[in-house]
Amino acid sequence: MKLSYYPGCSLHGTALDYDQSVQRVCRQVGVELVEIPDWNCCGASSAHMTDHEIGMRLPMRNLVIAQELGNDILVPCAACFQRLKAADIELRRRPEYWDVKSYSPEMKIIHIATFLAQEQILGRIGASTKRALGGLPVACYYGCLSLRNPKITGAEKWEMPENLEKVSAALGARPVRWSHRTECCSGSLTMARPDIAEKLVGDIVAAARRGGASAMVTDCPMCQANVESRQDPAGEEEAIPVFYITELIEAAFNGDYSRRQQGQHLVTASVLADLFAGDSLHKED
Amino acid sequence: MADTNISPDERNVKLLAKLQERGIDVGACYQCGRCSAGCPIGDHFDLSVMEVVRLAAYGQEERLVKSHAIWLCAACETCATRCPNDIEIAALMDVLRELALRKEIAPAEPRVPLFHHSFLGSIRRWGRVYEIGMIGSYKMKSGDLTGDMRLGLKMFMKKKLKLRPHAIADKTQIREIFSGKGKEYDR
Question: Where is the 4Fe-4S ferredoxin-type domain (chain B) (predicted)?
């Protein structure tokens, strides 16, 4: 299977480790990724929130390039995914308005969680799993933009999504039931109004704790950075690490979660390593 | 919101026409309040989400572009997703922010548009977001030099912030996109 790949700016910056784990997992499950040549930023929230013209034309440029490649596009970032989908719908509706001669490719835009939760891919993930995750209680966190607005994202279960739970369960983790799976963490406000971000992240993390989770799992690079960096600034409670779903997959593939990987997190992220250490102690008994 | 009298003479018909063009049917609101109930940031708003929709239906552009609500909205799309009458409320917020900026209305939350401006400035220059440059530009513009210093340093030490920007090859197209000549501006 061959897919076009749109990493987006986060995955080439603060979420570089996400980019690397997505690429390694895809290689392992036999999916070839071809990066869209000379891709540009999708504009994220800032563009569409303040300038419709720019908010549309930035993602459209990527789609026009991807159209030439023809393959479906894999998008790990929720914000990029939503912007590319919005532009795709608008470009199909009236390409001439946006100065594009024709645009009706069969190419689909696929978000990472939807991709991973497909039966075929789940099977391959299961086959490559070396060490199951021993019932690790995880709170799967979706945030906003891979789901909403479903008219744009095409999400089928936008209030009760289950893709991340499916993947986590396939790895042997135990997805907990909790309340804030699709609540906003206010990533787009986090620099200008950190006080609001701290409140929202605090509520989300408290809910994950109530659910009994010892880690959170997400597919959104903004949620990952925001939830790790804005929880409990006073440091009174132990922070909950937020793993990318592909990190969780890799940990199960390798039976290892190295110190180097732990070091990429902004909070202590030793639960996976502790789990594996517990396993090996068990064996020695 | 204080009690208010709205006369049909005060309706901004241009705003209503623009919303119609974008397919934002504010007139369909029957005030069920689901938008306000689900808004994660509503507690911090000066106008509730439903009030924004109602004021828009009455063409009260001036009240809206001066509000805190339009800048505190995080574009999470919960309101529009749950609206039983399919009103594109998040798109309405986009239109109001864009109008406020183009008419140079002093923003009630000045740091928010400064952040967007820095973010877009980075894209305009490189074609992609260059995080250190974007953050630096925002810090200079907002005067918030000390905020998040520890976080920034931590991310830097963890090599999460790239030192050098990556410029895309075809910057002409990006320049064209930012040229301000688009069709959307004519209306």
Answer: 20-50
